[in-house]
Amino acid sequence: MQYFIGIVPPEKELSKIREFRNQWSANRIEEMVEPHITLKAQGGLTADESWLEGMKQAAAEFPAFQIQLGEPQFFGEDILYLSVDSPELEQLHRQLMETVGITPEHIDQYFEMDQFLAHMTLAKTAYGLLRDELSEMAVAATLELVPNPAFEVESIRVYRKAASQDGYVKYLDLPLKTGK
Fold first, then answer.
1. pLDDT score for 88
2. Whole-structure pTM value
3. Residue in 37, 34, 74, 71 with CA at minimum distance from that of residue 148
4. 2-175: what fold?
5. CA 52, CA 99: separation in Å to the nearest integer?
6. Which of 38, 99, 105, 142 is deepest in the core (most CB within 10 A)?
7. Would you list the domain boundaries of the chain?
């Protein structure tokens, strides 16, 4: 099993992003995983799930917070994403990293801690789009997805992928501390 932890926008924004991504028929990203903001990559999240109790506790102690999706940007020329603005998200990322206690190798391999850049991937050339199509998609994203409304994050989602699966699926949601 492989795992990662993400944040999923509310259904209204999730639907809007899905519809946008599906305009590009070659974009296979939806088959791999639902739209999300990666909070903690795979490093240190082992199949024995010994890390899960610590994650549950860390989430339960971290207050709900706001996220603002921003402008489309690129990692190199092959990955198009929406930027994310939220100082609390950075804090939560660091807290989860400390909970898992990952290695420097994992930090480098998965771009975590100081290398962490919160984002929501829209498309990749690895998922069937050409670079020119990604450029067109970036222009369209600016027109159709920006500005994005801020939303409240009240839980984080653990995703899981079995060796026999192509993509990640929801495993469980971990609630954050809310005033409700």
1. 94
2. 0.87
3. 71
4. Cyclic Phosphodiesterase; Chain: A, (3.90.1140)
5. 10
6. 38
7. 2-175
